[in-house]
Amino acid sequence: MDEAWAPLESAQTTTLSELFDSEPDRLERLTVDESGILFDFSKTHLGRSQLDGFIRLAETAGLKERRDALFAGEAVNPTEERAAEHTAERGEGAAESVARARRFHARMRTLIDAMEADAFGSIRHILHVGIGGSALGPKLLVDALGREAGRYDTAIVSNVDGAALEEAIRRFDPHATLLVIASKTFTTTETMLNAGSALSWMDEHGVVDPYGRVVALTASPDKAIEFGVDETRILPFSDTVGGRYSLWSSIGFPAALALGWDAFESLLEGAAAMDRHFRLAPLARNAPVLAAFVDRYYANIRKVESRAVFAYDERLRLLPDYLQQLEMESNGKSVRLDGSPAGRATSPIVWGGVGTDAQHAVFQLLHQGTHLVPVEFIASVEPGHSLAPDHHRQLLANAFGQGAALMSGRRSDDPHRDYPGDRPSTTILLDRLDPRTLGALLAFYEHRVFANAALLGINPFDQFGVELGKAMAKALDADSGSIDFDSSTRALIARAFGASGE
Ligand code: F6P
Fold it and tell me: pTM of the prediction?
């Protein structure tokens, strides 16, 4: 595979304006219009020769074979000896996995119908406790799509800091609250503690049967039963669906509740359309693959360490958080599938915010700072509000204007007022933000992560890096005296817990 990198690594750097001048078909070649989304990669340094080089790299790295193995339900996650079957949740994958996902979805739908028929008494509040992939996806969906459609007042609590749970329950009526416990493993300490405290809150406020107000979303139903959840209130999903890929499964329950079942189905259909695009489109016209080529170009050829994502749409303000987990937990690795060193940079640091706010905070560095940061603009042609059109026109003018300014710059003899330009950006323009399009957008990001992993030869589906810190915190919490911590940690323990560590 290293031989395929060599020509890419030794190629001359061409500026964006030279690329536009020398490649008249650039815009056409580097834009993909798929599932109501326009992906424009033309303002990146991906020249024709790089594109050819990356296609050769993809072939050498077996990207197509790995993609086929993903959709066939093969064990593409060898360190955990299992498949990664999030696409089966939206109907694209091995037949038996798709059938199982449909069965699980049917259970979810039945429960939603029962709730609507008041089977749980009158529920007005949904208190969802979960963390990481068991929170970020549903939170994004409810925030992006549920603002007006929101039929329940929903709080998604993740942090173990009691302030988070307290804030949510302060505004909720315990007698009108459904507690949703979301955890793939049903062992995550934050979630278990938050769930226990929420149950105590209900109990203290005289709810007769708090466990009767619980729904569990999990791939470990036995553990949920052990915890005390009624078997009929468990919505399972397959353990081949990774946490950060799980919003399509029963982990999406609060979103399906808040938005309604039809909207949830549209979300799945949108994702399935993107799955088919990823599976069938030629590499040079494949949006997730092109995005991965761009990612690799900056990370490995230009040695750039981060990528910034700015949602020029208030409804997508949680997208950067969601992408941080998806991309950094998936591809923040240092070894290849066979355990050998990755040998080159893997996931960039993903960060971002919302436009136009970010322009007045961090864009100075993007235009004139010493770091090269590829920027991603995400916007929607249709506005998400009913105020005067000026708002949306200005919003889009800013998104497009920033991309143009980063690329072309403006030279000045005054070094303080000099904009060097040649700074890359990608624009992702949605026709409208609806469930179907959001489904397609999120599936695009998942496949982009997968394509990056294939080019690097790494496993995007495990996350052993988070385990050591978890184990240390657990041991410290249980008995801080039993571990031989360093002197700095010992001093912190003494300061916070007292000299005895209690
Ligand atoms: O901390 C890492 C992690 O394992 C994530 O991958 C996962 O999304 C999160 O914890 C929550 O795990 P669970 O759904 O099992 O509670």
Answer: 0.97
